[in-house]
Amino acid sequence: MRSFVPEYDLIAAKHLPEALHILSSGEGWRPIAGGTDLMVLFNAGKLPWRRLASVSETEELRRVVTSSDCVSIGAAITYSEIRQSPILQAEFPLLCQSASWTGSIANQNRGTLGGNIANASPAADSAPVLLAYDAELELRSVGGTRLIPYAEFHLGYKSMQLREDELIVQIHLPRPLCDVRQYGRKVGTRKAQAISKVSLAATAVVENGTIIDVRIAMGSVAPVPLRCQETEAVLRGERLTPTLQARARDTLLREIQPISDIRSTSEYRAMVAANLLGEYLESLS
Amino acid sequence: MEYRLVGTAVPRKEAGRKVSGTAEYVDDVRLPEMLHGVTVRSTIPRGHIRKISFDGAIPWHEFVIVDARDIPGKNVVSLIYDDQPYLAAERVNHPQEPILLLAHADKHLLERARQNVHIEYEPLPAVFHLEEALAAETVIWGEDNVFKRYTIEKGEVDAMWSEAAFIVEGEYSTGAQEQLYIEPNGMIATFGAEGVTIRGSMQCPFYVQKALMALFGLPAEKVRVIQQETGGAFGGKEEYPSMLAGHAALLALKSGKPVKMVYDREEDMAATTKRHPSKTRHRTAVTSDGRLLAMEVEFSIDGGAYATLSGVVLSRGTIHSCGPYRCDNVRVRSVAVATNAPPHGAFRGFGAPQSLFALERHMDKIARTVGLEPDEFRARNLLRTGDSTATGQVIKDPIDLVRLQSRALDSIGYHEKRRRFPVENARSRRKKGIGFATFFHGAGFTGSGERFLQSVVTLEARAANRVRVLTSMTEMGQGTNTVLAQIAGEALGLCYEQVEVTNPDTAEVPNSGPTVASRTAMVVGKLVENAAREMKAKLPSHDFAALGPLRVTVQYKEPPGIFWDDALYRGEAYGAFSYATYAAEVTVDTLTGEVEVNDFVALQEVGRVLHPVLATGQIEGGVAQGIGMALYEKVVWRDGVMVNNQMTNYVMPTSADIPNIRVYFEEIPYEHGAMGAKGIGELPMDGPVPAVLNAIENAIGIDFDHAPVLPEDVLAKLAKRRVA
Ligand SMILES: Cc1cc2nc3c(=O)[nH]c(=O)nc-3n(C[C@H](O)[C@H](O)[C@H](O)COP(=O)(O)OP(=O)(O)OC[C@H]3O[C@@H](n4cnc5c(N)ncnc54)[C@H](O)[C@@H]3O)c2cc1C
What is the DSSP letter of B506? Predict the structure, then answer.
């Protein structure tokens, strides 16, 4: 433990209004949910925030609500809960799959979807999936609620549209209206307990060999989880041919900006990104 | 011979306390008035210490602060050369070198204080790579950066090149590897009128005792070392505990209170020893029908900043570098050099995994060059009874390595898969391959080592028909207590429960040498067997109470006919070798470069198997560590600092990455090992790396010459080949 423990404070909010009230106090309180990101920093002596307000107990953040056109996931829902949810299994299998790829069982029992989003790692495993499902975030503060498309949420490395007094309350996923072809793959450092080197999540509507609609998102290839809109544009409305696949690949390689770090190299990330896209497009034809 | 206990899976002696959570590891121990201690380390690889300042709003007067001037005896961690200081006084030689020690009752305040010590340096040029060290343009140790050199000469190597049908050359390298025992290093020291007492996690209590005697200028009876329950070691707690015990003891001496020091994972990974990085060059002369004419090997290892055990690691790597093959003309030259990294040290296999990796990759390369199947080429050259190794040691075991090798290959369906995989691979992105390695590992100390050790064990008969085994062999999860009790019980005709194995405490047990080198069951177990037989002869009945307490002590005597020449590196290098063929089946995903090991067969001849479950566990664990070394575990260095010193980024395989490991034994009892046992602990580390890389070559036709091979390496090579 490399932090000076007496310097830290923790409050557990009993409900959402209390949590929002604490965050609005201007006294430097920041949210903590499962703690699986924050406690790692704490242990390493690298957690700058001294005051933590736990949102794990707030009932409002702990529900999955289904309406006719949308499934809304409370931000403090854990990976284990995601994996066990029948509606998510049926309609959003990529989310259950990425939850199963996240850390270990112990991690999945504590780690939350909201925490994964707000931690804003480009390697976050839920992020490409939420992008591919066109998720919308509901943010709330004492001042009110705003809805932000997830594709616009991340602004740059670890920078996002989230004010210090705001909480992510819910993640809304529009329910699919027709048969959607889904693909997800994580290439990590090992098969479990692994951080992604590259990940890809994609959905598509294909009719008679033509791509009617497509959404492609990748992790660990840019400063933010990346919705690959240029690549999508190349594919949308087109018939799947080898030439098209090659064009999509080239576009993707221009669109991503992978880096070399302690876990991998930019060359590797680029090659794998292109290969995963190729595998996905082949699965569509 | 029929045995009652030996060869059966009796419950482990310490299983109950481990399963119930009552086993006491060093961090569980709390002594009255105990302080915690931390280390302030260098932050530069090499230079002079200019100024130390104690900053921040820290109540420094409450702290116990120790520097080199507080050392009452010699400021060296006594081992082989006296080159490594306990605390750097004026000069640092690696970026984790201990400079100051701090103690305080409040662990959290202590950590904050540590962060507020600032040290200014005048940097000196540093050396980080083997080649740089060998070039000796910058000299950082001795006159030429060389810790140790060896040469093995057999026959007439130089005369053979002109006779060779093929001359095959290759260069191979391996990286550092972290032991990753689950329990980090930890020690508690107390100082009193009776001297210093150490409790901690360790392999070798008498190494710690010896080091502390020099540090404090105390006689042996004033330095007591007690092993706590130890959560794994793999060599990583062979020499390093002497350093940490000394630090805790220095703080205890100055504070007059017990001091506990336990590293966290980050510090343990960054500052303590790892497997030596290595480089091996082979040049081999082969006849047209695939027989080895001459082998020339250059083997070098990076020892880090101080000599520690590098010379001994080098020795084992050197002796194993020509493997279990018959070759009349051999020259091996080896060298261990200094770099400005934390010292590398003991790790399961002790140099042999490095040089055997090179050899078993090279053997596949020769087979390919000569145009023979890898198994056929090896079969033509494997040692037979009566042949001699590189050091001239004549193999006396009635061992048939060709048969051993084919049994392993049959178990994994090698030949059928060699035919089938290429056909299937042509239609798939997931390419399958199969490869193997045949190798041996010498058990016990090298050469005259066991003779110098003069190990002693004692058996004590007590009331209630119980017997106590007293040795310095440590239990660290591998099963020492269990097998020693089996051996004693077997020889005495007692049941397993009647034998107790004493926890190592230098005040109580004799020095039976260190728990290293696969020597415990074979060498020390034999001493226990001998002591038990002697005791049985003295006790016609088992009514110990009637006879009163009885102690029998025996000392190691070298078996007859063993000759070792330390100067020429010639003769009987080891009392016994264990032999093995390991075969791996892999799948290479050509989209991602990921390699998965799908099946693994580990067949070995290890003399008598004393405990089938523990023995199988040793093999499985060693293979898992070997797969880690082959495909996952890469230490990322930046100027002598391990920068991926967390388990997130130093990627050790999990159970999801390890296949079912199929373990098979053959047993040829060895007369000088306990009940016929030979060494087993290190052997399984030697084979997996070459077996896996040979399988990758079979799958995709790329011959990697370094380990680990990461997906990045695979994909880069595949891309390069596509371009070419
Ligand atoms: C061993 C280990 C393995 C891991 N493996 C993976 C992996 O495979 N893939 C992966 O993606 N991640 C992984 N992680 C990271 C982590 O588990 C996830 O990011 C997790 O989702 C974080 O959720 P949490 O609730 O624990 O977040 P916390 O640590 O509690 O918080 C993380 C951040 O989110 C903020 N936050 C939390 N809830 C809210 C909210 N409702 N509104 C606004 N801000 C909020 C916090 O202020 C903080 O900034 C791993 C972590 C560990 C320790």
Answer: T
